[in-house]
Amino acid sequence: MSVISIANQFVGPGHPPFVIAELSGNHNQKKSLAMAMIKSAAECGVNAIKLQTYTADSMTLDVDSADFMIKDKDSLWHGESLHSLYEKAATPYEWHEDLFRYAKSLGLIAFSSPFDNEAVDFLDELGVPCFKIASFELTDLPLIAHAASKGKPLIMSTGMASLAEIEMAVSSANKAGCSDIILLKCTSTYPAEPVNTNLNTIQNMRSTFGYQVGLSDHTKGIGAAVASVALGATVIEKHFVLDRLAGGVDAAFSLEPNELKSLVEESYRAWQSLGEVRYGGSVSETKSKQYRRSIYVANNIKAGEMLSDSNLRIVRPAHGLAPKHWSQVLGKKAKTDLAVGHALSWQDVE
């Protein structure tokens, strides 16, 4: 796996997790709310914010037939038509430049998920540093090829894709000239349950395709995302909302600011804790070794007296002979008088 540069920030092995706050449609069609979300995300310490670039008409048809209705009773959006849902969730094109500029002013990387070729061109003209392909679009090979042709890194959520479908998506990107690819393990249910998240796929996906793998996480909370770091996830994407109770199309599985801040902090701690394969303690543990056990005089001993378990004990600290010498010491005689609390050494033994 190679390290990838996104807007001059390195992403990949040897670097902290790259955390993305997905605004999605949680701005509720209010630009001021979108701005406030970006400001809050920056305060939480994320690396990037992401938008979604589409219109209801570019996503689907304005038709009320059964094919275009959300019929799954377990869905957050049961009973809605696809067109009306995307109308509510869309981020107006005319906001993008201002939102991107504001994010950059706060030190954030800003990019988006395009859902058609026109959106790719629009985002490219705005100078986004990378593109994100949503999980439901992973089988839209013409879209992937067009985004890949722009010469920028490509982040692709795999969702319910099979190995063959991921291979076709990667191949399409490669043929269009893109080799800077990051795949995201993703469970395309909203919200997703931890039991269906299957984080162990991250390692298999990385070894199978040879690219960095991260997590686009739709579970509630931060547990799955933090755990993914231990499995080598280099990117974490989570949906974000200022207040779940205030609503938003994705609010039910989005993180509030205090949770997002915790995600940034804990994923960084998880990454730091990975370290390297090491036995024998670290440099920082050197002083602690004195609190191991060793052999001490437990009762006053006269010169020539036999050393036994009645006048010696194995206790903390470790300034005396190591416990491994216990059987060698017992039955020997003391060279000199030894007082209680004396750390036994070979010089004390005849």
From TrEMBL:
Lineage: Bacteria, Pseudomonadati, Pseudomonadota, Gammaproteobacteria, Alteromonadales
Protein known as: Pseudaminic acid synthase
Location of the AFP-like domain: 294-350
InterPro entries with a match to the protein in the record: AFP_Neu5c_C_sf, Aldolase_TIM, PseI-like, PseI/NeuA/B-like_N, Pseudaminic_synth_PseI, SAF, SAF_AFP_Neu5Ac, SAF_PseI/NeuA/NeuB
Any one GO MF annotation of this record: N-acylneuraminate-9-phosphate synthase activity
UniProt keyword list: Transferase
EC number(s) from the headed UniProt entry: 2.5.1.97
Classification via Gene3D superfamilies: Aldolase class I, Antifreeze-like/N-acetylneuraminic acid synthase C-terminal domain
Entry's Gene Ontology BP terms: carbohydrate biosynthetic process
